[in-house]
Design goal:
mainly alpha; Serine Threonine Protein Phosphatase 5, Tetratricopeptide repeat
């Protein structure tokens, strides 16, 4: 059983939550299944809207599909979530992503 299948097998069980959905989203993104990755990352954020790592990866996944407005929105919301949690590094990274998206260095 591969990583994606192993994680999918846990959905709906006692371990289902933000971390499982984030992990599945990351595995799907790595496997090139971007649309399904986005769905799982959004599910992770339904569990925990302040999960800054999920916002960051969601932005990357949206960018991969060419949906720059969704990527920008995810990173803006991720910055707010990161600041709420005191996750300075994640906020800094997402600000850099936004700047690059806007054509900055």
């Amino acid at each position: 059983m591969n990583r994606v299948d192993s994680l999918k097998a846990q959905l709906g069980g006692p371990r289902d939550g933000a971390l499982l959905r984030y992990s599945l989203g990351a595995a799907l993104l790595d496997a090139g299944e971007t649309a399904e990755a986005i769905m799982q990352l959004r599910a992770a954020l339904d569990f925990d809207p302040n999960y800054s790592a999920a916002w960051k990866l969601l932005g990357k996944a949206c960018l991969r599909t060419g949906d720059t407005p969704a990527a920008s929105d995810a990173w803006r919301r991720g910055i707010a979530a990161a600041e709420t949690r005191g996750d300075v590094q994640a906020a800094k990274e997402m600000r850099v992503f936004l700047k690059r998206l806007a054509g900055g260095p």
